[in-house]
Amino acid sequence: MSISNFMKKMMLVRQFSSDNGKITVYNVRLVTLAFVSLKEIQNEIMAKLGKGGVSILYNSAKKGGYELTKQLCNIMGISGPKAVELLITGCRELTGWGNFELIDYNSSERKAIFHVSNGPFAEVPGSVESCHFARGLIAGALTYVFNSEVDAIETKCASKGSAFCEFVVQPYANLDVSSKLVKEQLEKI
Predict the structure, then answer these.
(1) Range 4-13 average pLDDT
(2) What was the pLDDT predicted at 189?
(3) What is the pTM of this model?
(4) Long-range contacts, stretch 115-119, CB < 8 angstroms, 24+ apart
(5) 173 CB contacts (<8 Å, ≥6 apart)?
(6) Domain ranges for the chain
(7) Lesser CB count within 10 Å: N end or C end of the chain?
(8) Backbone phi, then psi, for 31, in 5-degree steps?
(9) Tens of pLDDT along 131-167?
């Protein structure tokens, strides 16, 4: 087993702790969850609520992504591009949400594009985009970073055969709300 440089740095400065059943990073509590559990939670929500489940998964993750990013940025004293760098590194090396790559970032337009390979939901073949939770985490994190409400649309999905998942983040007003993809992914219950 190898430990990433990111983890080594956190351990060196005592910002990662696993003690008495509690895991913390910069004093923010984390929990690990087998992906199969998260997948089953998503499957149950979607089975019971249909398309309405998309909204629950996305919005709950968006709130969590916002709060986690806010806590970490405040503790570490970072913002803007440094916060985005933390998001990318943390997701890639700590959380298991996949290998994040920032393709485009424009803070004045409040827009970003991420490619994510090895995301957990990529292992679940399907006919529709399925990374609603990841999409919400990204939207919440960037809502905090941009200090302005943004949403994320998954325009490519590995579970549908793409080489990676692509997430386009921008203000809702800038999205093509007549697009089937936007309607499906941001439909309100």
Answers:
(1) 60
(2) 46
(3) 0.85
(4) 115/164, 115/165, 115/166, 116/91, 116/164, 116/165, 116/166, 116/167, 117/158, 117/163, 117/164, 117/165, 119/158, 119/165
(5) none
(6) 52-186
(7) N
(8) -130, 150
(9) 888 899 999 999 999 999 999 999 998 888 899 999 9
pLDDT band for 13, please (50, 70, 90 cuts): low
- C-beta contacts of 69-77 below 8 A and 24+ residues apart: 69/140, 69/141, 69/144, 69/145, 70/144, 71/26, 71/28, 72/25, 72/26, 72/28, 73/144, 73/145, 75/26, 75/27, 75/28, 76/26
Residue 62 burial (CB < 10 Å; 0-12/13-18/19+)? Answer: buried
Give CA–CA dist 42/56, Å, rounded: 10
End-to-end CA distance of the chain: 44
Alpha-carbon distance of 182 to 2, in angstroms, equals: 40
The third-level CATH classification (topology) of the domain covering 52-186 is Muramoyl-pentapeptide Carboxypeptidase; domain 2 (3.30.1380)
Can you give the pLDDT at residue 136?
Answer: 94
